[in-house]
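A student in our group prepared the protein record below, which I am reviewing. Thanks in advance; the entry in question is below.
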Amino acid sequence: MENITIFFALTAGLLSFFSPCVFPLIPAYVAHLTDGSVKDGKVNTQKSVLFSRSISFIFGFSIVFVLLGASASVVGQIFLDNKKLIQMIGGFLIIIFGLQMLGVFKIKFLMTEKRFDYNRKSKASSLKSFILGLAFGSGWTPCVGLALSSILLLASSTETIYSGMFLLWIYALGLGIPFLLLSFLVTYSLNVVKRINKVLPKLSLVNGVILIIMGLLLFTGQMEKISAYLSTFTIFKGVGL
């Protein structure tokens, strides 16, 4: 796995978290995961419960993403002899996803959304938080779907199945770390959510630009060259798989 693909996977995960489809819902997710309530401008819940439930939720969607990465890698291995062609097709599709995120294209089927219902009346627990995480990972929202699909295309071009799985684990890490941090912040004040909401459209544009750059690098074969260059520096040695 190239070092630069790890960077793109982590960045895509971070920007997916700050998408209009995910970020504004964080207080509601936190309240539901912990059986807490939104009152006095913050989410009221126990910190220990919040930590354990959040970890379970993150673990749930991470498993889904890693399994998707394994599946994409298997498909890529089948067509290993045509790796260059797969990279070009993948790069082209990622560019389309980036243009879609920038609003240049408005392809309807890329904006479809799948949701999984869960029983909101039942008492929350770590197991149910884990199941909710599975549902979140399986029910892609349009914003997350574009970034996630792009990383899956990268995974399909990796050398081994384990490389593809690791790439999606990095993506899940990029999505999960800010979720955990913000979960604790909203127990003190919801003002941080209101402030970040104002810049979400700009972050979406950044995500679109990054996808286009990633697609161009993959399509032209420059991603491998850049990774080879980075690997000459000591700080990057041993990072790839």
